[in-house]
């Protein structure tokens, strides 16, 4: 199995990050007009939305559109990233819609579905399905080929995704992801007996030999800072069920983090979890694990809950979905094995 890493980018890579320092001769000028002259491939409406959402800052402070830029001001901007030359074709693919209103839509993504079109995956993606089911969803400036996406999960990870249905919602949600204020919890089954709860931190970047997978580094020049908190939910002898809470949204973050502490995800082929890493040498046990791999032919990872501030009502919304059938069956199999083999 080839893991489609190029299709699953870091959430912060979804957005432009601009840093502009006004020169010493800068005349007083409204921030919106200033940015219109400095930012390529944008519109005044897009800039205005960013200002209203608080993703335009001057000297680390949010400003209004009427703010006058002065010499030596440091302006930082977060915008949806530049358009790509990608055409998306609508496809009538069923979606498990958890919630929908005029601004946002939440789907429970099934395992095996790629989130957006990319190399070797131009059809059958979540975005293909969205463009069919939401035919009024515009292709917004900066997200050509990925309408409404403000975050994503790996192809073989199941669970919750929020989609923005208009530019204001996209900008408002993007700010929350960028500032790590989105509440996200995953459930994972990992190899080994985790002794206690903990936190994994470090710089995460592409593996030097295989760019399809990620590694942990001590050097900030080799990766981006990442934080995952994990909590033990259930110990099952040779595997442990854990809940992971993300502070950052890096590519393959949970998968790389758990491997880095010696507990790769069960049946995660890219990170070595598809081998029998713990347990006995008995052929009966080997057969049990292989049968469980067959039940769950992917990494044991599910995005179970998502919480965010609604772009229009400003209310905090929280959603949770149960683990899918393949994960549930594999977990039940481990529970039965653990119960029957306790001394």
Domain unit count: 3
Low confidence ranges: 1-9
CATH-derived topology of the largest domain: Pseudouridine synthase
Gyration radius, in Å = 22 Å
CATH architectural group of the largest domain: 2-Layer Sandwich
Description:
The chain is an alpha+beta fold and 343 residues long. It has three domains: 68 residues, Structural Genomics Hypothetical 15.5 Kd Protein In mrcA-pckA Intergenic Region, Chain A, CATH 3.10.290; 96 residues, Pseudouridine synthase (2-Layer Sandwich); 135 residues, Pseudouridine synthase, CATH 3.30.2350. Helices cover 22% and strands 28% of the residues. Strands 7, 8, 9, 10, 11, 12, 13, 14, 15 and 16 form a ten-stranded mixed sheet that branches. A four-stranded antiparallel sheet has the order 1-6-3-4. A two-stranded antiparallel ribbon has the order 2-5. A hairpin with a 2-residue loop joins β3 and β4. α2 packs across α4. The longest helix has 16 residues. The chain is elongated and about 80 Å long. 39% of the residues are buried. The N terminus is likely disordered.
In short:
This protein has 343 residues and is an alpha+beta fold.
Label this structure with key terms:
Pseudouridine synthase; 7 helices; 3 domains; 28% strand; alpha+beta; elongated; four-stranded antiparallel β-sheet; Structural Genomics Hypothetical 15.5 Kd Protein In mrcA-pckA Intergenic Region, Chain A; 16 strands
């Amino acid at each position: 199995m080839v893991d489609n890493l190029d299709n699953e980018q870091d959430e912060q890579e979804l957005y432009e990050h601009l840093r502009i320092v006004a020169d010493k001769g800068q005349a007083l000028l409204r921030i919106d007009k200033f940015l219109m002259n400095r930012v390529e491939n944008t519109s005044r409406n897009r800039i205005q939305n960013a200002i209203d959402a608080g993703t335009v800052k001057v000297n680390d402070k949010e400003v209004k559109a009427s703010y006058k830029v002065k010499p030596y001001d440091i302006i930082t901007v977060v915008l949806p990233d530049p358009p790509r030359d990608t055409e998306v074709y609508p496809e009538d693919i069923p979606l498990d819609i958890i919630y929908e209103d005029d601004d946002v839509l939440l789907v429970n993504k099934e395992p095996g579905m790629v989130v957006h079109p990319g190399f070797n995956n131009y059809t059958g993606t979540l975005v293909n399905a969205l463009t069919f089911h939401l035919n009024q969803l515009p292709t917004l400036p900066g997200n050509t080929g990925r309408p409404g996406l403000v975050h994503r999960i790996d192809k073989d990870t199941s669970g919750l995704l929020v989609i923005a249905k208009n530019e204001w919602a996209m900008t408002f949600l993007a700010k929350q992801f960028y500032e790590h204020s989105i509440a996200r919890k995953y459930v994972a089954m990992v190899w080994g007996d985790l002794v206690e709860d903990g936190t994994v931190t470090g710089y995460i970047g592409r593996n030097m030999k295989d760019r399809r997978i990620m590694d942990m580094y001590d050097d900030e020049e080799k990766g981006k800072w990442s934080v995952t908190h994990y909590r033990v939910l259930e110990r099952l002898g040779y595997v442990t069920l854990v809940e992971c809470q993300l502070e950052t949204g890096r590519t393959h973050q949970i998968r790389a983090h758990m491997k880095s502490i010696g507990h790769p995800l069960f049946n995660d082929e890219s990170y070595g979890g598809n081998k029998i890493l713990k347990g006995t040498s008995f052929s009966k046990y080997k057969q049990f694990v292989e049968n469980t791999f067959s039940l769950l032919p992917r990494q044991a990872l599910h995005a179970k809950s998502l919480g965010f501030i609604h772009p229009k009502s400003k209310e905090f919304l929280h959603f949770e979905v149960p683990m899918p059938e393949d994960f549930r069956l594999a977990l039940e199999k481990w529970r039965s094995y653990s119960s029957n083999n306790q001394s």
